[in-house]
From TrEMBL:
Family assignment from sequence similarity: Belongs to the AB hydrolase superfamily. Epoxide hydrolase family.
Protein name as catalogued: Epoxide hydrolase 4
Origin superkingdom: Eukaryota
Gene3D superfamilies in the record: alpha/beta hydrolase
Keywords attached to this entry: Hydrolase, Membrane, Transmembrane, Transmembrane helix
Source organism: Phasianus colchicus
Length: 363
């Protein structure tokens, strides 16, 4: 009796990879078609408004508010890139490093810059490609390895060898990865509305609802079209992300003021300002899943339950990857933009976590 043929492992791996990329590009095409239909609908209704794009020449006063800190720059020797950041608190105090999400920049941490400067040197960074930080032109310069190394290099350039690391959204993804790759540099990890990366990649493949919510990850794989769609109707998409009923900050939250919105419009209306941020996403499917998973420092995960982009079930699953004290707090009335939406509650939760004894391994 003949033995059944065994499919070589490499063939199975290749087949899985083929199916994975077929899914990525198929969904990319679906998202592009939906965006194209929305564009045609906008042109049909208001052709004049559709292509109106105002570039803001002068920053609103809030971006130069001295109570938020001092605008600073640091050039990294190895990469040659110049990074912009805003720093509050005295030099020499323990470092608290803040990593923003998309589409945000250092200003999304304004409430935390004011709050924690009494005991920390608080640094709110513009990530590679954002705001006043240098933006390499090629998408390959935004691979996760480079983004992780950026944080390590910035930490060392600021004269520190460790920090309290806080990240939101995409900045949360980077914070998780820095904690995994350079655990000696992170004394405590705080992540806002982003699960452990392994949870995210496994969950999205098993839950179509999350796949739909993460459609922009796939849409952003296209060249130039995502950037263009953001400019339609004078950045209507950008405004609605923060203000609409489905994705924005709720009625019970700390709503963005007109000046806050103008700050975002000022930064992202500059020529080419969207390409760097979107390039962050154009490499993600070639960088995940992770080879190493475990997080070994005390970790706080904060989550707005009304997050329109991330399902809350991922927050609880994250617990299995943290091999130290882990605290999860879910705020029922809060949105994806948690540190801006509920700043007083978020700041209080962070203070509690920073001051508590985390010698206990798990909660």
């Amino acid at each position: 009796m003949a033995r059944p043929c065994c499919v070589p492992r490499r063939v199975m791996v290749a087949a899985r990879a083929l199916l994975f990329w077929a899914l990525v590009y198929s969904y990319c095409g679906v998202c592009a078609c939906i965006a194209g239909l929305r564009l045609l609908w906008s042109i049909g209704r208001r052709p004049g408004e559709t292509f109106r794009w105002v570039m803001r020449e002068n920053p609103p006063a809030c971006l130069n508010d001295p109570s938020l800190g001092t605008h600073c720059y640091v050039r990294i020797k190895d990469s040659g890139l110049r990074f912009h950041y805003v720093a509050a608190g005295e030099r020499g105090k323990p470092l608290m490093l803040l990593l923003h999400g998309f589409p945000e920049f250092w200003y999304s941490w304004r409430h935390q810059l004011r709050e924690f400067k009494s005991e920390y040197r608080v640094v709110a960074l513009d990530l590679r490609g954002y705001g006043e930080t240098d933006a390499p032109s090629h998408k390959d310069n935004y691979k996760l390895d480079f983004l992780i190394t950026d944080i390590k290099d910035i930490l060392e350039s600021l004269g520190y060898n460790k920090c309290v690391l806080i990240g939101h959204d995409w900045g949360g993804m980077i914070a998780w990865l820095v904690a995994i790759c350079y655990p000696e540099m992170v004394t405590k990890l705080i992540v806002v509305n982003f699960p452990h990366p392994s949870v995210f990649t496994e969950y999205i493949l098993r839950h179509p609802s999350q796949l739909i919510k993460s459609g922009y990850y796939f849409f952003f794989q296209m060249p130039w079209f995502p950037e263009f769609m953001f400019t339609v109707n004078d950045f209507k998409v950008l405004k609605s992300l923060f203000t609409s009923q489905t994705t924005g900050i709720g009625r019970k939250g700390c709503r963005l003021t007109a000046e806050d919105i103008e700050a975002y419009l000022y930064v992202f209306s500059q020529p080419g300002a969207l390409t760097g941020p979107i390039n962050h996403y154009r490499n993600i499917f070639s960088c995940l899943p992770l080879q190493h998973h475990e997080v070994i420092m005390p970790t706080l995960l904060l989550w707005g339950e009304r997050d329109a982009f991330m399902e809350v079930e991922m927050a609880e699953i994250t617990r299995i990857y943290v091999k130290n004290h882990f605290r999860l707090t879910i705020l029922s009335e809060a949105s994806h933009w948690l540190q801006q939406d509920q700043p007083d509650i978020v700041n209080k939760l962070i203070w509690t976590f920073l001051k508590e004894d985390t010698t206990r391994k798990r909660e």
